[in-house]
From TrEMBL:
Keywords: Carbohydrate metabolism, Endoplasmic reticulum, Glycoprotein, Membrane, Signal, Transmembrane, Transmembrane helix. It is a single-pass type I membrane protein. Residues 219-234 have a biased composition (Low complexity). Residues 1-20 form the signal peptide. It holds the Pfam family Malectin. Belongs to the malectin family. This is Malectin domain-containing protein.
Amino acid sequence: MVHLVYCLVMLLGHLITAHGLGEVIYAVNAGGEAHIDVYGVRYEKDPLTGKVGTASDFGKQLVIGRVPPGDQVLYQTERYHHSTFGYEIPLKGDGDYVLVLKFSEVYFNAPDQKVFDVMLNGEVVAVAALDIFGRVGRGVAHDEYIPFAIAGPRLTAGGQETQLRGSKVKVEFVKGYKDNPKVNAIFVIKGRLDDVPKLPPLPREEDLDSVEEERRQGPSIHPSSSHNHNNNKQPPQPAKRRPSGPRTPDPYASDDTSSMLPVFVAIGAAIPILFCLCKL
């Protein structure tokens, strides 16, 4: 029942946020084929296919959390590389933009195994020391939202600035000391962060909140039921205990063989006497 309620809330959240989606100017399903998500965003086939890095669908053996079934493919396919790699994203003039990077850890089972940075134009740190498993665990969707602004030839993000090369910005996944950088999907909108549909909260966070709330409230007992319970209160019954070990013989139990012992003695004594009489 709890799982059903969570699924309904997640779907409702998706439908509500889809209405305010900004203008999508770029979307790619990294390592995968073209796909249209629940918001109507059309993700193109990975343009780096056969050029840079390795495409993988290893994640298709997992059910990815936090996303509708139809959109799990966006987190099940990926592109990774043994070196730094990236995508060039076209822009549409000055204004506010949001870069959304989609990730899911489908291989490692512990944190601090795959850690890498994400850069814009090789100068602006968009995401530092990203550890996907450390953020959400294995087989769970994780999105990074990077707002940035374009004013002439300058790009500004998070208080950092870089010069544009033409009308494009390059997002790069930087090779570090811990495994290979990767990405599952990318999209960019022209708009503000409020215009971007967000992933629902992590299920485990909601579970912890509900458990903590129940703990604070304690068991709920209706006054009338409590009163009736007191009126009909029965004396406590002693608990039945199971015997531990074999049953001990009762030393006071009657034994039929002991009562017949005098008879057997008399018969035994009479046999020699009868033998002697027979000889006479």
